[in-house]
Amino acid sequence: MYTVPTREFERRLNLLYRVMDEKKLDAAYIVNPINITYFIGFYYLQTERPAAIIVRRNGDIYFFGPLLESDHVLNQTKFVSRVYTYRDYPGEVHPMRLFADWLKELRLDSSAIGYDTSPGYVGYWGYKGPSLAELLPGVKFVSISVDIYSMRLIKSDVEIELLRESAKWSNLAHSLLQDYTAPGIYDYEVSLRASLDASIMMKKALGSGYKPVRSEYPAYAGFRGQVGEHGAYPHSISVERPIKVGDVLVTGASADVGGYMAELERNLFVGKPSNDVIKYHELMLKLQDAALSILKPGVKASDVDKAVIRTAEELGVTEYLLHHSGHGIGLEGHEAPFLDAGDDTVLRPGMVVTVEPGIYIRGLGGFRHSDTVVIHEDHVEVITYYPRDTESLMVEI
User: Fold this and answer.
1) In this structure, which of 72, 199, 292, 388 has its CB flanked by the most CB atoms within 10 Å?
2) Which PANTHER family match (predicted)?
3) Residue ranges of domains in the chain, CATH in brackets
4) Looking at residue 396, what DSSP letter applies?
5) Model pLDDT for residues 193-216, shown as the tens digit of each residue
6) 187-206 and 157-180 are packed helices; what angle lies between their axes, rounded to 10 degrees?
7) How buried is residue 58: exposed, middle or buried, by Cβ count under 10 Å (0-12/13-18/19+)?
8) Contacts of 92 (CB under 8 A, 6+ apart)
């Protein structure tokens, strides 16, 4: 299974209908493109052009959006009853005014409507426009953002299986990344080659019915600029020099399966690592082990991060911690819950998180592994399985 089946979307919509019943809503107005994907399987590139779906309690679903998406939405999903389109933004008549007119046409202008992000549109890409609350004073708008995110917190068996499949191809992409890494070449050369080859293999294996949902290619592996001393920046972007002997590399790999992408990150070592490199790598592994050892249902997300902080204090590396210990993952690369000292969310079966405490040493590099973990009723399942030990992560030169 490499796509989300119809029954899964029906399950999600039924959860939404339940929220609408509880809050006495006539419809839901969904703007967040990830939420649109979640409920009806339509994924698009968000721009300044407003787009939304309207989900009625009777089961009818309408798409409001730019003309350029009209065929696209009908090709991707069977759940939309009718498409309403405008030519472009900002247009002679602002799209939000058209949205208000269409809601009047649907006789929803004196109803109760739930919204996920905004009773209008979000201010990305230079967008400016009135709120539907201004244009439709007779509508009672109610935020259901928390309700929708609560649905997404717990992954279904379908979602977990898609993430497992993603983890398999992430493993392949990372294996190629390690094979292709060598001194004297740039990180992007290695990344492009590994990502291309892994994507070709993935497409051939999964067949003609498979296509990536969230990205242009099936599999990815790369460094995000974390090469050598640049690895000390957790969110480095690029590096001006080629890879060289002695570098510590921070790597990442993933694969798009039905829009779900597991997260696999590792260190690689170009040549035999120094004693300092071995020391900090092994200390980082102890931090990750501390997090994994406490991860289970009933534990607070904050407790996981606090366990890492305590271990860092015992090991004398607290000053090198620059971020929390992990985050939820699913249709988005970062989702709640966050393994952070300030997040008291109680972990429950079906939650999927990354475990990735890191330490960052100026002038030497970054030390971080990330594994994707599924929380079950009686155990946790680490679905990424690339080797973690120093020797296995050495790049031969």
Assistant:
1) 199
2) AMINOPEPTIDASE, XAA-PRO AMINOPEPTIDASE P-RELATED
3) 6-152 (3.40.350.10), 154-395 (3.90.230.10)
4) P
5) 999 999 999 999 999 889 999 878
6) 130
7) exposed
8) none
